[in-house]
Amino acid sequence: MRLTRIHVSAPPQAGGACTVRGEAANHLARVLRLEVGDTLEVFDGEGGEYSGRIEAMRKGEVQVALGPRREGLTESSLQLTLAQGISRGERMDWVVQKAVELGVTRIVPVLTERSVVRLDAEQARHKQRHWHGVAVAACEQSGRSRLPTIDLPQPLPMFFAALGAGAGTGTLRVLANPQAHTGLAALPATAEQVLVLIGPEGGLAAAEIHAAVEHGFLCVRLGPRVLRTETAAVAVLALLQQRFGDL
Questions:
Q1: Element counts in the chain: helices (H) and strands (E)
Q2: Tens digit of pLDDT for each residue in 9-66?
Q3: Which residues, including other chains, have CB under 8 Å from residue 64's CB and lie 6 or more apart?
Q4: Domain 79-244, CATH
Q5: What is the DSSP letter of 119?
Q6: How many angstroms separate the CA atoms of 211 and 2, rounded?
Q7: Which of 11, 61, 97, 191 has a Cα-to-Cα distance from 231 of 20 to 30 A?
Q8: Out of 2.160.10.10, 2.40.240.20, 3.30.160.620, 1.20.1250.20, which CATH number does the structure's domain 5-71 have?
């Protein structure tokens, strides 16, 4: 039987104890119905894992005794960043979940010309917190011990401005574009860092594609069919991990 895995936001002390609070504590007690003496796995989101045993349970809190820290072994050697055009509701949640399962290091939600979603500053912060929770749950399920970074949603031009020019960065930049003339086979034979840009439901505008190319992105197509934004993200991440990573 697979052990329950739980994330703690503050790095715990190896050989000591940690306190799980809030929704995570309620999940352990009320949903999973764990009891004092039950074992579980704890991870700190920074690559560390710990064997744990429940020592006490109080309302809204679960006290867990911890074994020695060990390094998680599920992280890919490929540093993979996904810049994803924000899609509506559960579609974006699904992209975040599957991207985490596929080993991304960082997710940058971007607002584009054709994005249906519009966010003010407070809504952007709320979305970031929500997607962070989705990422935590995906790490718990998939066995990852290092949490990917989820950036604050930002306009695509701001993202490009922060990137700078493409030459000399050491990062392979890839744009999934159904109008491209080449596929992933045209990419270099090796890469240690890859940045992937995926447009929203309506795709990127011509000016945005042009700006991406100016910033060093290589346009590739994922076959003869036009994929939904969430399908394209998962497909290209899996293919890149198979080529350069650990799939």
A1: 6, 13
A2: 776 666 688 888 888 888 898 888 999 999 999 999 999 999 999 999 988 899 999 9
A3: 6, 17, 18, 19, 20, 40, 42, 52, 53, 54, 55
A4: 3.40.1280.10
A5: -
A6: 47
A7: 191
A8: 2.40.240.20
